[in-house]
Amino acid sequence: MIYQRHIPREELFSAQLEMLMQNGQLPTVAAHLIGVGAAMVMFWPFMETSTVLLSAGAFLVLLLLRSLHMSRALASRAYRDHPGWVYCWLLLGSAATGLAWAGVYILAAHHVPITMQYTFLLMILMITAVSVGFSVIIREYFIVFLFTAVWPIAWWSLYRFWEQPYNLVIGLSLLAFCALLVVICNRAYSFFCNMISLGWERESMSRELGQLTTSLRDRNRQLRSARAQLTDLANIDELTGLANRRRVNVALQEELERACESRSNLSLIMLDVDFFKPYNDTYGHPAGDQVLKQLAEIMLGVTGRAGELVARYGGEEFILLLPGASSEAALRTAERLRLLVEAAAIPHGAGGAGQRITVSQGVVTVLPEDHTRMEHLLTQADEALYSAKQRGRNQVIAAA
What we know:
Structural class: alpha+beta
Distance between the termini: 70 Å
């Protein structure tokens, strides 16, 4: 997503409609209801009751219809889907309300005392001035009300200036009042537009930052996964899926340190496939690879305790790392492994008298001390394995 520096015009217009209806609905109804109540009190003694009640009722219906329109537009989000229709109905409601006030003033001017007439005019001007605060979010909305409520009264006063001594002054003053409110309206409108634009830009930046954060989080997760995969590839033998020489060297060093601290045994089995080179020469390397895979499954089957590790140390040579295993336990594991390999009965026509795959194993068990070295342990296991080879293969020999 590319960050937009300025709010699009359609977004600004929809936001203006939403803000106007959310913030202007209650003040609009409240201001006009107060005006209706005050007008009824003022005109009750001077006009027919039916006229007052009918006018007030019609005004209340108009306010109710305007309020319902705003509520429905907000609930259905019509200001986003059909902003033009919402805008037109808002202007129509504002014009109808303004014309109602102007009409009531002109009608009342023929029935009430002049002081009451001017008091009523002052109330209309106060409602108009107060409306600036919540209706100039959309400039045209306020201007329509201003020029339907005050403008007709101004020209009516100028047109009938001879009937009352102050009509000329009132008419000119109302025109000046309209001009002043238009100036105020323009400045307030600019302020609201800037406020909406800034709010939209902050939200846009927040969304963009949120998406970037999510993207970075996903990328970090992918990098961690890739790093873990690379680590696995670096520590796992591709053919058998066992740990490789690098991994077993690290694990052996860690287990030596742990066993030294806990004063516990550490056993190591080094295993070699008997006559494996002749097997490869006779059956081919793909068959040899299958044998190594099968042996790997067998070795995994005899291990499983926490910390135990099976690794391909190189070629046909394997290592089983058995933390905490005593010499007797390690020898039992090695013997069990030897028997399982024999039971697998993998044919080996070039493998001597047995005519099947066998393994030789060297076992070493130590109670590590600070001076115990990994190289020394591997050398002992290798010497025991060599001894098993020398004694005829398919044997388990413990290091001296």
